[in-house]
Amino acid sequence: MAIIVKMGKVPTEFKEALPILQRIEKAGYEAYFVGGSVRDTLLNRPIHDVDIATSAYPSEVKELFKRTVDTGIEHGTVMILDHGTGYEVTTFRTESGYQDYRRPDKVKFVRSLKEDLKRRDFTINALAMSESGQITDLFGGLADMKAKIIRAVGDPDERFNEDALRMMRAIRFASQLDFQIEAKTLVGIKRHSQLLEKIAVERTHTEFVKMMTGRDAENGLDLMVATDLYQHMPGLTSRQSQLQRMIQSHFKLINEVQVWSLLAFYFNFSSQEISQFLKSWKTANKIIDDVILTTELLFRMTADQVANWDLYRAGRQNVTNAVAILNTISPASFSAYLTDYQKLPITDKKQLKITGGQLIKAGILKPSPELGKVLNYLEKAVVQATVRNDEQALINATTSFINEDD
Ligand code: ATP
Ligand code: MG
Description:
Blueprint: E1 3-4, H1 12-26, E2 31-34, H2 36-42, E3 51-54, H3 58-64, E4 68-72, E5 77-80, E6 87-91, E7 93-96, E8 106-109, H4 113-118, E9 127-129, E10 134-137, H5 141-147, E11 149-150, H6 156-162, H7 165-177, E12 180-181, H8 183-192, H9 201-212, H10 217-226, H11 240-248, H12 256-266, H13 271-280, H14 285-302, H15 308-329, H16 336-342, H17 356-361, H18 369-383, H19 391-405
Bound molecules: adenosine-5'-triphosphate and magnesium ion.
């Protein structure tokens, strides 16, 4: 029986792209929505990127539209800017010769939708939706969706051999969608887990964070341990017992900083260990800084040793991160720290009611290294509420600080 999705019910992202499908079809080619956006629409989940697949070759696609950009022309992808914010249209293709377990040596453009769907990773990701809302399901993706199953398209061993990242993706989808991994697919992951080492850390990183911020992340982590995948990720090899403890707990994480901070907390990492661990995952420096601050708060909050200065130094975002993490893993509420943060006399050095320039102008200090020291002292004193944040109080505090220092 044909499944038809009513176009009146699809997200606006699809509606905006309909003229693209219509234009391609009018020219005599086929065009479909494919991949994650179709899956997520059928699951009533919000969609992000809308992918379109077509039987038209890239040069043919470009002839049909006024404004196009070659975003990935060698893989058959052209971005069309004529409608809405920009849509990627990719020519049906087959892939072959995965010599390095990650990228096909050869992509071939083809005219057949079936061939294109066959190269996709999982049955629920191999659905196509036409302009009229009709779903093409050649591998039982709809039944798997109903049964909440992640199943490789074709032979799992072959598919993971071609591209080892698919193993991470399987577990990531299981976590995000709260699905089970089908038995043979799971065995395939176990059997090929060591191939993950062939994959660029950046790509494993992306999938790991998506898995950890998924709905059923404890299960995702459990699967990573059960399949031995974790053994082939940076810095996790000797962490089985801590990972097991995490799997037994309940946590809900909503961003990357929270993911790494929770791990660092369970691993009892020092700042230096956090930095080393996250560098091995090729994590951005800004994230590393935030994880260090958030993790320090986790240790302090659980030991009930938080000073105003700790909250101030961490900043609003990291205080929020730490409280959010602890509220999910602990029966107690840590939300009072949010109020404490809001009550801080200042949240930024710029809010000090005096500047170095004013101190110089008032003849209290000369431009010198001492000036920086004084301002640091005032910042800390105001945050800890030992000095009021008004001009006179700050001048007085400066004078006594200088005298004390002499
Ligand atoms: P997300 O919600 O994260 O975007 P997605 O399923 O859309 O999930 P993408 O990486 O955006 O994932 O890929 C789009 C589609 O391309 C997938 O749904 C799948 O059909 C196919 N695909 C992506 N990566 C692979 C892969 N490594 N092997 C096979 N097919 C893949
Ligand atoms: Mg996508």
